Amino acid sequence: MQSHLSRHPDALGPVTRGPKITPTIPPMPAAASEADDPGSKTDAFSFSLRPQEVARHLDRFVIGQAEAKKVLSVALCDHFQHVRLTREGKPARFYQKQNVLLLGPTGVGKTHLVRSAADLIGVPFVKADATRFSETGYVGADVDDLVRDLIRRAGGDISLAEHGIIYLDEADKLATREAGAGRDVSGRGVQTNLLKLMEDADVPVISPNDVTGQLQGAMAAMRGGVPASETINTRHILFIVSGAFAGMEQVVRRRLTAAGDTSATVAALTGAQLLAEAGTADFVSYGFEPEFIGRLPVRVACHGLNTDDLFNVLLKSESSLIHQYERAFEAYGIRVKFKSSGLRRLAQIATFENIGARGLMTACERVFRDFKFELPSTSVKDFTVTRQLVDDPAVELRKLLEK
Questions:
Q1: Which of 38, 179, 187, 314 has its CA 20 to 30 A from that of 95?
Q2: At a CB cut-off of 8 Å and minimum separation 6, what does 241 contact?
Q3: DSSP assignment letter at 377
């Protein structure tokens, strides 16, 4: 929907948008696994994006996080260029997959970054919270289900799913910092199950615990359909894990102090700077298995969002929340216009929520709740969001109704 920001003489100018980039990977036809012959499907996969093109695409949807965009763009391009070369019969014998670890507080754009990148590249994308999984044999989801979810997202196309992206959020909840606390089925056990999956594993398309699926697979095989024993290989699936990692700053601070850095120097570091300094030893101290953290060689810290960042999220992002509110009011024939002062005030309110961009929804709902309830049943056809309206929505709504 077209933005109304430029239709009012006192309103903001047009929302800034970056250059549009067309995905360069077309949907791939279904094909057999390439595990035995990686060079057998030379024409089924293409990739020609450059890291700067990916970063410019991400700029359209996520404000700030320049370092995260740079790191993620390079990792994605390296990974999918490797996949392309492998499928063309030019495999690298000792290539190590560049799975990514994103650190940072909630609401700073981690999920949005990964989802936007997956949309650009044209591969299926699956997001899940680490807390839903448990060690195999216990009640809870199996990590192999992540791969099966990719197949569903790919419409059953295993060849396409084998090049998807799996995003595992809240990975910091897998840390086990208490020794001798009994059997850990959702921390260390899940880490162990993820090890092979993140590197190179064959996952049954139908879960061994899915009796219905097994029966359906057997019946399909009898009719000449998909064999019940078919598997999907994870060699070319990129894994990205993230988490807030609360308390990691203290772990890094203790290490830096023990290493001989002066107290004043360490004390001057911000939380984001400390997260950026986190190394393998810090993650092990935090509660991760060395083998698990070793499968995540690409690491980048995302910083928290200040008022200016949140203002730009509203003003410049193509996925700005204000478009949602324009659409909601337009459904009733009401045109809403946003002044810069109103957006700035919404950003200030959201800052105090301390939950990143998610605070914008909280701020907007608080301000516009009564407008959304009252105005559709009136003859009001337009209104303007100013600082005064954000500060005292009840008074401004009453003025509108009195007109």
A1: 187
A2: 99, 100, 101, 102, 130, 167, 168, 169, 171, 296
A3: G
Residue 365 predicted with pLDDT over 90: yes
Distance CA 171, CA 183 (A): 19
301, burial (CB in 10 Å: exposed 0-12, middle 13-18, buried 19+): buried
Say what the pTM is.
0.78
Residues 295 and 312 in one domain: no
pLDDT digits (tens, 9 = 90+) for 107-156: 899 999 999 999 999 899 999 998 888 655 444 578 899 999 999 999 98
Query: Is there a contact between 196 and 99 (Cβ–Cβ < 8 Å)?
Result: no
Residue 203 pairs with which residues in a beta bridge?
A: 232
- Give yes or no: residues 198 and 296 share one domain: yes
Work out the angle at residue 290's Cα, subtended by the Cα atoms of residues 287 and 294, and round it to the nearest 5 degrees.
120
pLDDT at 403 over 50: yes
Looking at the DSSP bridge assignments, the partners of residue 128 are 168
Residues 297 and 316 in one domain: no
Do 83 and 47 meet the contact criterion of CB atoms below 8 Å apart?
Answer: yes
The dihedrals phi and psi of 69, each to the nearest 5 degrees, come to -65, -40
3-class DSSP state of 151: helix
- Tens-digit pLDDT profile for residues 143-166: 899 999 999 999 989 988 999 999
Q: Which amino acid is at 15?
A: V
Examine the pLDDT at 288 and tell me if it is beyond 50: yes
Which of 238, 266, 301 lies at the terminal end of a domain, its last residue?
301
Question: Could you tell me the residue range of the domain that residue 161 belongs to?
Answer: 66-301
Q: Would strands 382-385 and 335-338 be described as parallel, antiparallel, or unpaired?
A: parallel
Kindly state the helix (H) or strand (E) to which residue 349 belongs, with its residue range: helix 340-353
Pairwise pLDDT comparison (46 vs 200), residue with the higher score: 200
Using CA atoms, how far apart are residues 231 and 154, in angstroms rounded to an integer? 15
